[in-house]
Amino acid sequence: MMTMFRRQLTISIPRAGFSDIQSRRGNAGAGTARRMLSLVILSACHAVLTLPISARAEWPERRVKLVVTFPPGSANDAAARIFADALGKRWGKPVIVEDRPGAEGTIGVGSFVSSQDDHTLLYTVAGSVTIAPLLIDKLPYDVDRDLQPIAATTVIVLTLAVSNDLSVRSIPELIDVIRSNPGKYAWTSGPTLPRYVFAAFLKQNGLQMNFVSYRDASKPQADLGGGRIQALLTSLTASSSPVQTGKARFLAVVNPTRAAALPDLQTARELGHPELEIDGLGGFFGGKAMSEALRSRVAADVVAICREPDVRRKLEAGGHNVLSGTTEELKGGIAKQRAWVSEITKLIDIRNAQ
Prior knowledge:
15 helices
């Protein structure tokens, strides 16, 4: 009935008690004996079935695959690998990362959903749940039915950086320069949420800039440093190079809280521009067939890993703020982001954000 049950169930019945049952005469006595024996067996089976999954069977029984919706070398891919390594050590089985990027995360999510395997997990961001259904008609899966939130992990640090060619040191100065030169300057961003946020920011402030699309995620940094684009809203790791070489500067962290790696850089909200705020929430998801007990087991392990000082140090150095690791935090973040995206869609067409 359950493939995870590989151990034989043994039920022990006291000899004296069973002898007493057998000694009874007549059909009524035999029927009572059979009923009593059945109750004993059913009670034992119920006890086994209600045990925590870790007590019922050894999970994982084999290696675990972690489907990641980001390209190799990206900040979220790096975070996924840190968690995969830590989980593998806790579980005593390897956790193998499989990168399936593309199409706003839907390629990786689709691959995960089709696996239908309790030894496969998904690592992605909340945008895979909140944004993808708005961008792509007739997704081959239902985000609410097929994706079960397990554990929040990190918030990727996102920054607004500008080229030194603009000679601005604040968001109000950036607004003034762009307004004085409509259509003269160019911008780009990380995919989905950063793009929609900055497009809405321009719309709200009556500003005109030219959006530049890139296939190569490493190119925007070089173009920001070379002055070919003037503004870049993306992850810290994807914008730090021109800042470090003195060719660009950060104006703000656009997350709700300051970055552990840049504690002195204020948030956009602190600077009076909450319209630039983004919560780049990431975490683990399970499939619809994964039991609640198993999801809870994985979540508890992620919570423990998020508390490990060495793990936190590695994640923060890689441009992440570390979360608590709970299921509730991931569910709450998704609900908050859905409400926020709903407001964004009133301002811009997210399928053609410019």
